Amino acid sequence: MKRLAEQEIRTAFVNCTKGEAKRLAVPRDLAERCWDDLDFLGWRDPQAPDRAYLVTELDGRPVGVQLRSSGAGPWQMRRSMCSVCLTTHAGGVSLMVAPNREAGQQGNSIGIYICSDLTCSLYARGKKDAGIGAHLHESLTLKEKAQRTVANLAAFCRPGHPPHRRCR
Length: 168
What we know:
Layout: H1 6-11, H2 18-23, E1 40-45, E2 48-58, E3 61-69, E4 79-81, E5 88-90, E6 93-99, E7 109-115, H3 120-124, H4 142-157
Antiparallel strand pairs: 1-2, 2-3, 3-6, 4-5, 6-7
C-alpha cells in the first residue's frame, strides 16, 4: 500500500459524514508504519475501542470504511477465522459492522469477521503469528496470500457494496 497522509485518510471515508471523518482519531505513527507490508491501514479508536477504521486502495485511490465492533459474543471465545486473511484465532476475530449510508439513515449495516487487531496484512505475510494451528496448510505463496487478502477486502469495500457511499 502506498504511504498516506492524514488528510488523504480523512477524505477517503465513504460511509460517514465529513464531520465524522474530520473528528476520527487517525493513528499518530503513520510515518513509522512499514507501508510496504500493508494491504490496508486498519486501527481501533483508542478512546472508543468499539470503533475501528480501515483504509485500502481501490482503483488507485484510497477508500476508508468506518466500522463498529458488534460487542462480545460467543464467537470471541472460540476459534474463528478472519474473512479477509483467512487466519484462525482463538478469541482474535471480531464481527465488525459498517453503517450503510447508501440506504439513508435507516440503520442498515453490513458485517465482516476480521482480525480484531486489524493486522490481516501481517498475518497473511507471516510477519505476525496468531498461535498454534492459526494457518491452514496452503500451497499459496506469501505473495498470493497477500493478493487474496486484498481481493477479500476489496469485495467488502467495492463501490456498490452496502458500506460504500461518498461522504456528504
